[in-house]
Amino acid sequence: MPALSEIITVLEQAYPPALAESWDAVGLVCGDPVEPVTRVLFCVDPVAETVDEAADLGAQLIVAHHPLLLRGVHGVAADTAKGSLVHRMIRTGIALYCAHTNADSADPGVSDALAQAIGLRVTGPLEPNQDGVTGIGRLGELPEPEPFAMFVQRVADALPATVPGVLGAGDADRPIRTVAVSGGAGDSYLEQATAAGVDAFVTADLRHHPAGEHLANPGAVPALVGLTHWASEWPWCGQASAVVADAFAGNVDICVSTRCTDPWNVRAERTSI
After folding, report:
1. Predicted TM-score (pTM) of this structure
2. What is the pLDDT of residues 167-188, one digit of tens each?
3. Tens digits of per-residue pLDDT, 183-207?
4. DSSP assignment of the chain
């Protein structure tokens, strides 16, 4: 039965905190490092739904991708949204550990998990660090070219369903072979994906104006595939859970949350002209 500190050591070997961006908040949010852990829940968002899930499962640790306390706080009063979660976890003996941009940059990391889910062979980072191996996003290629419409469907079939679904922007018949991916909000890396000359760029939270301006260029490359934030990062939960499962085989129960924590939960289409 490992202590929380032992599990943190394994996670930080896989996702070194030194890889985190300077503005980020990664690491242990609450919990006693000496306490034993027998069950871990992996999720994208540390929110009420996943804390409830951890409590129902009897998990002593939540490993989340997104930080709970990203911006500076002066208190965690129980009558605030985030403070109530901290109090709930402490009362029920649940620790929270977050691996964010360090997991984005790690090799393998968040974008490797996304690329693997889609069926890409990764060839390198999209925005490499100085070592040329770690960094944000990944470049990859499909085994064979396929039409863009088929590729968009491939992405939709590879990831968990969401209310907004998966959207494509580009020529439906254009062949796709080389692809850039970035888990999470990645339209700030559209310039890098364009410079890489890939056929398609898959990411979340693509904004209207950058996407429109990109597509206005003659023969715009790459075509764009837009996901919800949660769906683009959820494959990482399987990757991270395997890290802990391999290190503590038989001694820790591993659970991956399938609860969609996207904020978008209602979809409507016009029914009249």
Report:
1. 0.96
2. 999 999 999 999 999 999 999 9
3. 999 999 999 999 999 999 999 999 9
4. --BHHHHHHHHHHHS-GGGS-TT---EEEE--TTSB-SEEEEES--SHHHHHHHHHHT-SEEEESS-SS-S--S---TTSHHHHHHHHHHHHT-EEEE--HHHHHSSS-HHHHHHHHHT-EEEEEEEE-TTSSSEEEEEEEEEEEEEHHHHHHHHHHHS---SS--EEES-TTSEEEEEEEEEEE-GGGHHHHHHHT-SEEEEE---HHHHHHHHTSTT-SSEEEEE-HHHHHTHHHHHHHHHHHHHTTTTSEEEE------S----------
